[in-house]
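Last lecture ended with a question: if I hand you only a sequence, what can you say about the shape of the protein? Today we answer it with a concrete record. The protein is Lysophospholipase L1-like esterase. Below, first the input exactly as provided, then the predicted structure, then a couple of comments.
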Amino acid sequence: MTDERLLFVGASLVEQGDWAAWFPDDEAINLGVSGETTADVLARLDDVVAAEPDSIVLQIGGNDFARRRSVEQVVRTIENIMVDLRRRLPGVRLLLVSITPRGAEFAERIRDANRHLRQFAATVRAQYLDVWPALADGDVLRDDFTTDGVHLTEAGYQAWVDELRPALERLREEPPMSRPISIIRDAGAL
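The predicted structure:
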């Protein structure tokens, strides 16, 4: 991997990750905040933009379901985050990570949201990483990957990082999006 400014954005799953140790060849910046919802991330996008990242890994949404937000609310807010990031950072590489399992009672709604997000990612030239198969045992996190059904153990993070490494390699194979080129015309040539 190349030396890039790699920004991780999300709630406690992101905050508790040791991204700098797991991606030592990059300048890994952790902007995870425990307890945050999609609306919280949307409200603090100025911090994301100010960090001037080359690539962004976004993983958010689980707390919204715990607070009884609808699939539509979660999906729309994540879409707004992605659209705003693309508008404000047109050259950034975006990787959207699926919402992880969070108890069997939430599974159907989270899977529905993830289906919508997978389809949406391409519309903002982002890549999508589905970590559900690597972390789940049916509708819940694998027992050895969690102690509370929500947060990851060291083994859980290792499974996530094992999925994340090749996803970031694919992301970096894509050329960065470029800013629109403005052509200055000589007034005399018109």
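Comments.
1. Residues 5-176 form a domain with the Rossmann fold fold (CATH 3.40.50.1110).
2. The CA atoms of residues 165 and 180 lie 30 Å apart.
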